[in-house]
Amino acid sequence: MEIMDIHGGKTLAGSVTVGGAKNSTVALIPASILSHTKVVFDSVPQIKDVENLRAILGDMNVPSTIDESVLTIDPSNIKQVPLTSGKIQSLRASYYFMGALLSRFGEAVVSFPGGDDIGPRPIDQHIRGFQALGATVHFENDSIHIKAPDTGLVGTMIKFDFISVGATINMILASVLAHGQTTIENAAREPEIIDLATFLNNMGARIRGAGTSQIKIEGVESLSSKNSHTIIPDRIEAGTYIIIAAAIGNGIWIKNVIPEHLDLFLGKLEEMGVNMQIGEDSVYVYPTERLVNVEIKTSPFPGFATDLQQPISSLMFLGEGQGVIHDTIYPKRVRHIPELCKMGAKIWKHENEIRILKSDHLQGTDVTADEIRAGASLMITGLIAPGETRIHDAGNILRGYDRVVHKLRSLGAEVRIIDEQ
Ligand code: EPU
After folding, report:
1. Quick one: pLDDT at residue 119?
2. Atom of ligand 1 at shortest distance to CA of 116?
3. Where does a domain end: 170, 201, 230?
4. For residues 166 and 369, what is the distance between their CA atoms, to the nearest angstrom?
5. Quick one: which of 52, 194, 243, 317 is 20 to 30 A from 349 by CA?
6. Which domain-ending residue is among 200, 230, 260?
7. Where is the Enolpyruvate transferase domain (predicted)?
């Protein structure tokens, strides 16, 4: 168990480079098992989720090596095994092995996924999709058994009841090698889905429409990777550093950003009074003079990302007026609230909304990060607040933020990780 120890209240300056997107990476690694040749990913974030996914690959006799941000995976001698080890439960995205194994072997046995506790996270849409492609699904001993007919999966029309990133990705993975055409209606449009489709298309897949709400997949015989794939920048990590820069920066460059991925977020920051220079692949945040709080409603891409609702609440502790956040995707993503209150923050839940007021008496103290973005908001608040903040269960932050301690220190923050005895 790790503790993140922060001595806050300092002004930060300099530049920081954003790593590859966590939520792309955690789909790309399971997708790599569809290749018959070695796969190379560039710009891989150094996060615990990657270590855990590599351990799962190891269980399937798929060796991998990592050299800084270059990950090489060799799935040429893959073995079909049930994925029921503890590592599967360490992250939500392990459910992408369901779609990938089903494609590669016509069968998948995978434990129920774990991951962040941000309220109920059912996978009914994934299961409905697998069944629509002709697979049978049954549950046994905490695992899901999915099996294609002996003649293989058959492309079909899959219309989701609502937008789901995970179900869209799992359907792409399951249908790339199916017979005929699959059409996904009401598909999620997140940039990470485009990234996955680009990777698969470069291996020979035929996926059109990724990034729109209708995706068409023409099944192909087999897939082989030829070139390395550079993972897109992490828009949530970028957003987190932009918030830090707006809160306590004395001029910070955030590099390796695709501003189009953060459109609504950047618009909200401007509305709050944050002064930025938005370049082609970077954002410069000027020191902030006065902030005003705003209302935010999260929604699927291109809307305001749920993954930034907790981080931006920390910026609202510095703004005039009442901030209101309505997380329509994960209304129960509120476990950061009592922890922030321990630090003197004025934040509370009111029906389906989170309300926030300027908090002039923030003070470092002992808090616990229950999940990744709750952890991010505690980290930001710890950097703002004077005194010492000790974030317990900081592994939840390290799970998803690339070399976060190194990056914060390079901006002048006093932060370190210590092992909890
Ligand atoms: N949902 C269902 N049934 C399903 C699938 C989803 O009811 O079968 C519901 C969910 O409970 C949620 C909504 O639909 O209310 C949207 O969920 P979605 O499936 O889009 O989320 P996800 O794929 O499980 C990914 C990211 C999350 C991010 C969400 C929303 C990964 C590995 N995770 O989760 O990232 O919050 O999309 O954008 O890509 C994070 O990085 O902090 C994180 C939690």
Report:
1. 61
2. 44
3. 230
4. 24
5. 243
6. 230
7. 7-408
| Distance from Cα 166 to the centre of ligand 1, integer Å | 6
Please report the pLDDT score of residue 94 as a whole number: 86
- 98 and 72 in a single domain? The answer is yes
Domain count along the chain? 2
Residue 124 annotated in ligand binding = yes
User: Rounded mean pLDDT of the chain?
Assistant: 95
Same domain, 108 and 254: no
Are 196 and 295 members of one domain? no
Which of the residues in the chain have pLDDT under 70?
A: 114-121
In which domain, by residue range, is 189 found? Answer: 22-230
Query: Do 129 and 218 belong together in one domain?
Result: yes
Within this chain, do residues 343 and 368 fall inside the same structural domain, yes or no? yes
**Ligand 1 lined by 92 (C-beta under 6 Å):** yes
Kindly report the number of other CB atoms within 10 A of residue 421's CB atom. 5
pLDDT given at position 142: 81
| CA 390/CA 417 separation, integer angstroms | 9
Residues 336 and 278 in one domain: yes
**Ligand 1 mutation pick, 22, 23, 128, max ligand atoms within 8 A of CB:** 23
Q: Tell whether 52 is in a known binding site.
A: no
| pTM > 0.70 | yes
